[in-house]
Amino acid sequence: MGRRRLVNAAEAKVLFGVAVDEDSLLRHYTLGPTDRLECEIRRRPHNQLGFAIQLCVMRHTGRLLAEGEQPPATLIHYLADQLSIEPRDYAIYARRAQTRFDHSRFLTEHLGLHIANKDDRCAALLAAIDAAASGDKGYLIATAVMSAFRQRGALLPSQAAMETIGLAGRAIARRRADISLVEDIAVEKLVVLDNVLHVDPAIGQTRFHWLRSAPDAPGASNLFELTERITFLRALEIDPRLQARISSGRWDQIIREGDATPAWLAADFELLPVSWTAG
Questions:
Q1: Are 61 and 17 in contact (CB under 8 A)?
Q2: What is the largest CA-CA distance in the chain?
Q3: What are the residues whose beta carbons fall under 8 Å from the beta carbon of 83, sequence distance 6 or more?
Q4: What are the residues facing 114 on neighbouring strands?
Q5: CA separation for the pair 218, 220 (Å, rounded)
Q6: Backbone angle region of 217, left / alpha / beta, with phi > 0 → left and psi within -120 to 50 → alpha
Q7: CB–CB of 71/83 below 8 Å?
Q8: If you ran DSSP here, which 8-state letter would residue 153 be given?
Q9: Is the pTM higher than 0.85?
Q10: Which of 15, 161, 178, 274 is 20 to 30 A distant from 199 in Cα terms?
Q11: Could you tell me which of 151, 147, 155, 109 has the C-alpha nearest to residue 131?
Q12: Which residues share a beta bridge with 199?
């Protein structure tokens, strides 16, 4: 089984990829006088080109090129043209791991950045939790994680590391929302609610399934069944103000999950141990 993903392939390309549209090239990959001077200090053409690519990618994206990552050909040609260097010279630079490392270390300091540390990761986790408080959309959570690192001047860690932080933040946000909804409900009331997930001998099914199978076609008999369900729900005495304890986005997510959950899996959401609800 593959690892869990926070964003899909298309979203990952937008978040972690190197944009090479005309506007991005002009805004982020056009070398200024100081940039050119720093490039020219590197004597050999392939080193000048490789340095320029690392400089622009780090400054724009806030991350290092991954080991073995090939920059888009459009980007290589765009910077090579500015330096009057053959684009194919980058292949020489790409093979020189030590040179790439030395340049990345210099550029990290030159751009006022630092390798992400424990404090940066904690800040990113808090940002993920805050973003996930409004819902489960991975793209928004991942964006918040990346912004937290950038605001602290930290180089972005790997995509896998950032997704791990985002997934952890989402799990914590979900758990906090669950706790907020039930934290001051009496145990007796929780037992009643959990029993909705157990088979009721009187109807031969769980009340959860019974509630979800309410008829929607017009008719006197169906109206009677709907009335029965409304009466049952009112008897549970669930305070409607509970909804205000969490964000609307998180509430909507809980509703969607409830709608999509098969009745036979619903018991996984019990709040109390089985022994508490057996009676």
A1: no
A2: 89
A3: 31, 36, 39, 45, 48, 49, 52
A4: 154
A5: 7
A6: beta
A7: no
A8: T
A9: no
A10: 178
A11: 147
A12: 206
Asked whether the predicted pLDDT for residue 274 surpasses 60, the reply is no
Instruction: Report the percent of the chain where pLDDT is more than 90.
Output: 56
Give CA–CA dist 269/208, Å, rounded.
Answer: 12
Residue 76 has pLDDT above 70, yes or no: yes
Q: CA–CA separation, 220 vs 174, rounded Å?
A: 41
Q: Compute the distance between CA of residue 102 and CA of residue 97 in angstroms, rounded to an integer.
A: 9
**Mean pLDDT over residues 77-92, rounded?**
95
Number of H helices, E strands in the chain: 15, 2
Neighbours of 50 (CB within 10 A): 28
211 against 1, higher pLDDT: 211
User: For the chain, what's the residue count?
Assistant: 279
- What CA–CA distances, in Å, run from 252 to 5, 17, 133, 234? 22, 31, 12, 21
Using alpha carbons, select from 80, 72, 22 the residue that is nearest to residue 50. Answer: 80
